[in-house]
Specification:
The chain is mostly helical. The chain contains three helices and two strands; from the N terminus they run ααββα. Helix 2 crosses helix 3.
Length: about 80
């Protein structure tokens, strides 16, 4: 059996790679935007004149957790708060 050699990346290097890919605003960027939007859109309420808002019933911490859980693929009931 042959082995595949993969380069070793530290977390800071991976973060830099991810950041650089997101800065290109390509498919990965679009995927992140779509994922964040899918969390926020159901909570958005139209208030008129083309404006909308997110009601205070959704605290910032709760929204941040939902967004991160969506991005990493954690479903409700997978240990999310």
């Amino acid at each position: 059996m042959s082995t595949v050699k993969m380069p070793f990346f530290t977390i800071p290097i991976v973060i830099k790679i991810l950041r650089n890919e997101l800065l290109k605003q390509g498919d990965l960027y679009d995927g992140f935007v779509a994922s964040i939007f899918s969390v926020l859109k159901p909570k958005e309420h139209y208030i008129g004149d083309g404006e909308s808002e997110i009601h205070a019933e959704y605290g910032a911490k709760h929204l941040a957790e939902e967004i991160l859980n969506q991005i990493i693929g954690m479903e409700d009931g997978d240990g999310s708060n």
